[in-house]
Design brief:
CATH class of the largest domain: Mainly Beta
Order of helices and strands: HEEEEHEEHEHEEEEEEE
CATH architecture of the largest domain: Beta Barrel
Number of helices: 4
CATH topology of the largest domain: OB fold (Dihydrolipoamide Acetyltransferase, E2P)
Helix content: 10-25%
Number of domains: 2
C-alpha cells in the first residue's frame, strides 16, 4: 500500500519537475502495476544481483561493462557500475520486482525491473550516471524509450563511460573482438532477407536487421550509423549463406539499436 501511495506522490513530483527545471527527473522510468517485494542477498556485477529467495536477477534495459574473468582485465567502469548497484541494493535491503514478459534468459536468470523503496528504478540510476548502455530486447521493451533517453543525456553530459568515447569506429583493418559494444561505420551494402534485412558496415561488419527495416534499408546506403549489440565471430569462413564474406556479425534486436548519424 505504501508503494502504491508513493506512485501517486511520484506523479505529482513529475508534474512539478517541469516548473522546477531539474536536469534529471527523479523516478522518470517506472514499470506499470505493483511490484512484489524481494530482499537482496548480494550483487554480482553492475547489472546482476542475487535475491534472498535464490533468484539471480538480470536487470532489464541495461548492459554494464564486464568485469574481468579468466585473466582478462575489467572493462572501463565495470567496477564503478558494480559499486553503484551495491549502493542501490545493499544486502538485506528490500526492493520491488517487476518480471519481464519474457521472464528468463538463456542462462536461467530472472529478467526483471527492480525498484527501490524510494520508487527509483535501479537501471535508471545507473544509466543516468553513465555506468551502462541502454538495451531494448523484445518483448521486454516497455521502458526502452525512457531508458535510451537517459543514456542520451548521460552521453551529452559526458559522464561515466561516456567520458572515454566508447563508440568503436569501423575502419579498414580495424581490430575487432567478440562482445558487446557500439560501433559506428558507413553503410556500404544493403539487402533483404526472408524475415528481415541486412547491411554491411565498412565492408567489415555484417548487420542483421529485423523485419521493421525491410521498407527502408535501401535508404541507409552510404549513411553513417551507430549499431549496438553483441559482436559474433563467424570465423574465417567465406561464402556464407547470405552471400557475404564478413567475418563479424551483429544482430539488431530493436530499432533503437541502430541510429542514423547523418
Amino acid at each position: 500500500m505504501l508503494h502504491g501511495l508513493y506512485r501517486i506522490l511520484k506523479k505529482a513530483l513529475l508534474a512539478s519537475a517541469f516548473f522546477i527545471g531539474c536536469s534529471t527527473v527523479f523516478g522518470a522510468c517506472m514499470p506499470k502495476g505493483e511490484g512484489a517485494q524481494a530482499e537482496v542477498e548480494r550483487v554480482l556485477d553492475g547489472d546482476t544481483l542475487v535475491l534472498r529467495d535464490g533468484r539471480t536477477v538480470r536487470l532489464i534495459g541495461i548492459n554494464t561493462p564486464e568485469l574481468g574473468r579468466d585473466g582478462r582485465a575489467d572493462e572501463a567502469f565495470a567496477r564503478e557500475a558494480r559499486l553503484e548497484l551495491r549502493r542501490l541494493a545493499t544486502p538485506g535491503s528490500r526492493l520491488f520486482i517487476y518480471p519481464g514478459r519474457e521472464g528468463r534468459d538463456r542462462y536461467g536468470r530472472t529478467l526483471a525491473h527492480l525498484v527501490d523503496d524510494d520508487g527509483r528504478l535501479l537501471a535508471e540510476s545507473l544509466l543516468a550516471d553513465g555506468l551502462g548502455y541502454a538495451l531494448a530486447i523484445a518483448p521486454n521493451t516497455t521502458l526502452a524509450d525512457c531508458l535510451f533517453s537517459l543514456e542520451r543525456t548521460a552521453r551529452e553530459r559526458q559522464v561515466g563511460l561516456w567520458k572515454l568515447s566508447p563508440v568503436k569506429r569501423l575502419e579498414r583493418g580495424a581490430a575487432l573482438k567478440a562482445g558487446f559494444g557500439v560501433w559506428r561505420g558507413r553503410v556500404t551494402r544493403t539487402g533483404l532477407r526472408k524475415d528481415g534485412a541486412w547491411l554491411v558496415l565498412d565492408e567489415q561488419l555484417f548487420v542483421l536487421l529485423p523485419g521493421s527495416f525491410r521498407a527502408r534499408v535501401g535508404t541507409l546506403r552510404d549513411r553513417t550509423v551507430e549499431a549496438r549489440g553483441w559482436l559474433v565471430d563467424r570465423g574465417r569462413r567465406s561464402g556464407a549463406k547470405d552471400g557475404t564474406r564478413q567475418r563479424w556479425l551483429l544482430s539488431i534486436s530493436h530499432p533503437l539499436h541502430l541510429v542514423v548519424m547523418d
